[in-house]
Amino acid sequence: MQPTVLLSALLLAGLMGMVGQGARTVVGLKKLHDFNATQAPDQATTFLASRLVISLIIGFIAGVLAALAVGLDKLAGPAGAAVEVLLGLAAAGYAGADFIEGFMSKAPAITGGAGTTGTARTEPPSTTTKTEPPATGASQPSEQADRLIMQTSQLSTEIASLQSVLATSAAASGWSSLSAATQVTPELVARLFVPATPLANIRNNLPHVLAGLRSYGLADRDMLLMALATIRAETEGFAPIDEMKSKYNTDKAPFDLYEPGTPIGKRLGNTQAGDGALFKGRGFIQLTGRDNYTRIGTQMGIDLVAQPAQANQPRIAGLILAQFLANKEDAIRAAAAADDLVLARKLVNGGSHGLDRFRDAYTKGRVAIPDGIEI
């Protein structure tokens, strides 16, 4: 990136942070005015201009840090900065010192390695891998490294959350920009689904799916088609939902075919009584089993094991979908390039469940969504 372009992007980010902090100051001044109106003249709190200057500086710094976290390319690209990105910088400036403190506490002191490759819903965990105790004297550095990697992942998740919320607001307000939320419209995506799929669901949840893909660097047509076709196969209503009872998961009690000791339960890594229902399928991709909840949650920096129902929150469901695709990205891209949709589906699902719906959506998407579209 050219130095002048870099400086321009940082300056824009800082100014947007100042705008956010300025908005917070206005709110504070209104509260101060209302408070002073209830006090005696000699007890009123005075406004100090120096505090305003400090607040604006804090907003500028927060805006710059937010831009570094999101990526300066979002500001310096040929199309300019998207509305939701600018609003995100302003939101960081509004948070001010809190955002700066959170950023600094989660900034990694080391570079973490690539996340481990996840498994598909019905793919059995390895039976040959076991956990060895760390060598004497090596556990503390290892724990610190894991903690830093987790904190970095949490920061990325929080940024993606902010982008998702802002994208939803932009879509609801009808703002026009060159961003993914307006280019990949709900009406366009609806062509890949059946008429019974509520358009309102697509409008509400599409921004979270797109934000998840962007946060994992999967912002291209191939991975978009993979994500949308997967949703079509798993949750045709375009909403994160609980897995329903069926002959495939229930015999006598709900989800008892997923319990420990059963063939499916073993493949899913369920180890405790009640795991079948506790770790049933959830979200856009129907995340299933203790093993998957543990692995994906750890990669995302979210404790899905302690609170499995989080997988149905649209923002988190979008990130889970993206994490699954990221884990098998190279293999998925190779399968798509070879037009092997059976393999592409198996890489995520572990089998051929919903293959007809997946194939139909993917094929329609190739026609409806132009190549080179920006997400």
| H and E order | HHHHHHHHHHHHHHHHH
Number of helical segments with 4 or more residues: 17
Kindly estimate the percentage of residues that lie in beta strands according to DSSP.
Answer: under 5%
Structural class: mainly alpha
The unreliable regions are: 108-142, 144-149, 163-182
- The multimeric state of the shown protein is single chain
Mean pLDDT: 77
Rounded Rg: 23 Å
Query: How many angstroms does the end-to-end distance come to?
Result: 21 Å
Give the proportion of residues in helices.
Answer: 55-70%
DSSP strand tally: 0
General form: globular
For the biggest sheet, the summary is: none
What does this structure look like?
This protein is mostly helical and 375 residues long. It has a domain at 3-35 and 48-106. The chain is 60% helix and 0% strand. It has 17 helices and no strands. It has helices spanning 3-37, 49-70, 73-76, 83-95, 97-106, 139-173, 180-183, 186-190, 199-215, 221-234, 263-268, 275-278, 290-300, 314-327, 329-337, 341-349, 355-368. Helix 15 packs antiparallel against helix 16. It starts with a helix and ends in a 7-residue tail after the last helix. Residues 113-137 have a biased composition (Low complexity). It comes from Bosea massiliensis.
Could you give a quick summary of the protein structure above?
Residues 113-137 have a biased composition (Low complexity). Helix content is 60%, strand content 0%.
List key phrases describing it.
single chain; transmembrane helix; Lysozyme-like_dom_sf; Glycoside hydrolase family 19 protein; mainly alpha; transmembrane; 17 helices; 375 residues; hydrolase activity
